[in-house]
Amino acid sequence: MSLHGTYDSQNIFAQIIRGDLPCYTLYEDDDVLAFLDLFPQSRGHSLVIPKRAAARNILEIDEASLAKVMAVVKKLAQAIVDELQPAGVQVAQFNGAPAGQTVFHIHMHVIPRFDGEGLGIHAASKADPAELEALQARLVKRLQG
Ligand code: AMP
């Protein structure tokens, strides 16, 4: 059951937190990490995760950790709106495979939505590294500004 189970410390996001796998970091503090989605559903699709909570989903995370994650979600959504000027911004979170979850470390999706552009297929095609690097530079600068 993907909704219920034990936390796997070898999941992709746990490896990213430990520094065993790279990511396009946008923001990091002691508790929260934000980075670009490698298989984006739109330009600027980002993820925000807790670093200290070994939680698979919203049912398992403690409220203090969730609050810290959401504070970064808001900060990042603002930076994305200011920098990329989307027509909308979607914040999403899935619990269990039937709900669309594929990585079992809780994460919030921040997905800018542009007029006339449909949503890309979930976790389907890998973005161009040069494009991700350019987006990372713009968003990091905006977040620090
Ligand atoms: P979910 O389906 O809600 O569990 O979302 C997992 C997300 O992680 C998807 O949007 C994937 O594109 C994304 N993803 C998977 N592997 C990586 C990775 N190594 N770096 C960044 N994003 C990833």
**What's the gyration radius in Å?**
15 Å
Beta-strand fraction estimate: 15-25%
Distance between the terminal alpha carbons, to the nearest Å?
43 Å
CATH topology: HIT family, subunit A
Return the domain count.
1
Q: Catalogue the unreliable spans.
A: none
Strand order of the largest sheet: 1-2-3-5-4
CATH class descriptor: Alpha Beta
SS elements, strand count: 5
- Helix/strand class: alpha+beta
User: Can you identify the CATH superfamily?
Assistant: HIT-like
What is the helix/strand order? HEEEHEEH
Number of helices: 3
Structural shape: globular
**Mean pLDDT over the full residue set:** 96
Known CATH architecture: 2-Layer Sandwich
Q: What small molecules does the structure contain?
A: adenosine monophosphate
The major beta sheet can be summarized as: 5 strands, antiparallel
| Percent helix | 25-40%
InterPro entries: HINT, Histidine_triad_HIT, HIT-like, HIT-like_sf
Motif (Histidine triad motif): 105-109
GO molecular function: catalytic activity
Active site: 107
Structural overview:
Pfam families: HIT. GO terms for molecular function: catalytic activity. There is one protein chain. The protein is α+β, with helices and mostly antiparallel strands. The chain is built from three helices and five strands. It has a five-stranded antiparallel sheet. Helix 2 (63-84) crosses helix 3 (129-144). The termini are far apart. The protein binds adenosine monophosphate (AMP). Adenosine monophosphate (AMP) binds at residues 12, 21, 23, 37-39, 47, 94, 100-103, 123. Adenosine monophosphate binds next to loops.
